[in-house]
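Handout, page 2. Input:
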Amino acid sequence: MACFSHPNKLLSDHLENVKNIGLNVFDSKKNLNFSIPKQQIRDALEIILYYHDFGKATLYFQDYLKNGQKCTFSDDLTSHALLSACITSYLIKQKTDNDMLSTIGFVAVRKHHGDLENLNPMISISPSKYEILKKQFSTLNFSCFKENLQFNFESIVDFVKDLLWVDFEKNFETYFLMNFIFSILTYSDKSDVVSTKLKPVVFNKDINSYIDKFKSINFQELDITRNEIYLKSLMQLKKMHESTGIFSLNVPTGSGKTLTSLNLAFNLLVQENLSRIIYALPFTSILDQTEKIIENVFQANKEEANKYMIVHHYLADIKITNDETSLIGNDAQFLIENWDKPLILTTFWQLFNTLISNKNSQIRKFHNIANSIIILDEVQSIPYKYWQLTKELFQNLIKILNCKIIFLTATMPLIFQESKKEIQPLIDSQTRQDYFQRFSKYSITILKDTNDIIKKINLDELFEIAKSKIKNYQNKSFLFVFNTIDSSIKFYKKLKETFSDKKLFYLSANIVPFERKKRINEIKNNPENKIIVSTQLIEAGVDIDVDVIYRDFAPFDSIVQAAGRCNRNNKRSQGEVIIFKLVNNHEKYDYNYIYSGLTLIETNNLFSDKIYQESQLFELINKYYNLISNKSSQQESLDLIKSLKELNYEELCKFKLVEEIPSFNMFLALDEKANQLLQQFLEIKKIQDRYERKSEFLKIKHWFYQYLLSCKINTKTQNYISSFEEIGGIRLVNHEMVDSIYDFETGLKTEWGVFL
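Output:
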């Protein structure tokens, strides 16, 4: 009698297909550096892939597959993962005599339909389970396989009972090997059952010339310093790429880091015979402009970027080009999440939660990090409490998975020490200092009181200072960066009452993503005589250019990032950045609602003078990060590293790259398009089949999320949210109700905002 793995799919065919897919993936990975011989790992992986669903050959599972909800057997009897894991682990031991591989095989197969847990629970079997396993084993139908397969149940049971006491070295290598094998298994298993396979695509052999060609078309007159950085960094890379794996491009804001880093990565691909570039940024708000740059580069080379690139973040369109076909829905999401194309544009969140996670869906793409060049743009956004974790992770990626890393920022944190040769600067220290000194696009003015302390001012006082400045400089553009949404909205309204002749823009996380993107484009297309009021959203990487910036007090790296918007393109007279400390009506500093601790203390100590030139930033940045490095605690990093090495995956859930605020999602039907999306959403939720329902939602997800905002949970919102219908965990605000909670200029009304 034939056995099936899925409806209308023979179990023997599924197992053979998964084995072939997984072994092809493994064989495509070059120069991996595990201490276990490659052939042993391959032998173990082959067994894992082929036997991962072997337990489906029982009478109980076949009855469940045939009868579904009408099946009379218990879930314990119809489950297949534990029996498959026992057989897999036993066979690995027989084949390789390697305890670590046997344990990894057991865990990978047992958990291949779920998330990973701590190691001991994953390899423990309760006494009651052995009777279930015996019943299942007695009904295995070996005749549905072509091979003559026979197993001794007692031998298998004796072996797995001892698995808990097996001792092997637990370190980064073990963690990476576990994730690597688990990733290949879950990827191969799901790949066999999806309807669409992604056709392989590789970069053209002349990919290392693409940026040169783009520059020759688009930049007839090259900026001398930008071109020096471009050429010097590539020259240094070519000298050093074989002897090291972590590089830094630490140059001033506005010096062409994006194009330079892409050129470096394209050249590394050719020189090192690597297969993928992973370009990661901290915020979705700045991915769009990087995506546009990449698209323009490929267009200049008569290529379509979508052929090679996957854009992966929560706001990205669930659409992918496969050969000449555009896919949407479930198939598109699966292909996007696997990172199978040679250029991945994504967020820090996606990258770090692939490296540090217990989630099946996140780890599934782990194998595709091997043989990659990873660019971390705006790397200063990594919280300093995770510096040690970041350091050890990336050092082991280079050592074990044959990766190369490029750290990219104007404010380089001291995650790695140049003096210890942990990182190779692509621009040497003296030249970097020279570049920072060449850049005099702006000065930083610290407003101080009579006691030489950074001035404490309220919103009314700030407005009077700013009003005078705006009136005296009629043709200049201004940016005001606040720490709280409440202050930003109040200030924007004051400006609007006074400067009706100016073009005013408001930006914050209070505005729906669709409108934020639209406003950023409008700002870029209105180069003069504009006033922007924003929160920290504007800081890292948002490509806008203004003459004068007022920035509420913040950690030094945040101030420098905001300052990077001042005279960004160096086409004006010197700009000015003005720093102050804003207090609210309760005489509390706004910055204390957002920031705390060491970074504020050291920034406060750093600003001993009243005026600083941009040329001084190189020295100040180094001083700031040295102070942070010497005084900061790395205990959270050390705890996570310990959990990681011990394969205690549930403990890794404590890793939070971004601090989470208790919140709920709200869809706002702001316009006709949003109304249509809401109606589509309501119809989709009526679909009974959950896979079809998910696939249909993915087709509208990109635009649906453009009208979605996250609202913090507090006493006020808890009283209000019951007014709105909830479907699928999302509160729906129809068009008639929008005006009660949303202002089309400033976004969510103050009591609803996710930030203060």
